[in-house]
């Protein structure tokens, strides 16, 4: 039963590859039948839990409630999408986002729940570092607007360069990953080579300092919560 549960969870998650918009599209009837089969297996597995578990314990377990809600939402969305498809009306399979709930909430997925719980507990503790990073990004974006916004510079495509604050924030955010380096600084560099110092300072502060700090905080807090979760499981 455990192997079958893992197989159908994998099959249910893999449907995204074959559903529109898909990498390898299959007819809607095929994907919908496979999804219904997976949901029936999940429902049968849940009923098996209900048979071997006291009723009060079963209904107090939030994992079982999550699985029930996910099954209900998936069936409802599938029915609505099928009806709209018959009338040639465009729709979106919004229930795809609930499919990972099956992977997390079945009893066999204890290790995945531990990792997910550790990530969830880590998020509040990395908020302060993330806010500092965003403050630095916003300040550098404001500096870029003041430095380059009034110089009527243009990109290689002939578009305005660093004149809109929100676009500057996005461009510098991408620069943190160095994905648009050095293209993003070339219009300013062509105007004056001294402007390269601005981008060098930005990369040092945000890419090398803040990203290293962010990674260290995430790793240390995740490791701490993982040990706490592991200790709690061992005690149980």
TrEMBL record:
Membrane topology term: Multi-pass membrane protein
N-terminal signal peptide: 1-16
GO function terms (MF aspect): monoatomic ion channel activity
Transmembrane region(s): 26-44, 65-84, 126-145, 165-182, 194-219
Superkingdom classification of source: Eukaryota
Entry-linked SUPFAM superfamilies: Voltage-gated potassium channels
Keyword entries, A-Z: Membrane, Signal, Transmembrane, Transmembrane helix
Predominant localisation class: membrane
InterPro entries documented for this protein: Ion_trans_dom (IPR005821)
Residue ranges of domain Ion transport in the record: 5-224
GO annotations of cellular component type: membrane
UniProt subcellular location: Membrane
Name by which UniProt lists this protein: TPC2 protein
Organism: Baryphthengus martii
Gene coding for it: Tpcn2
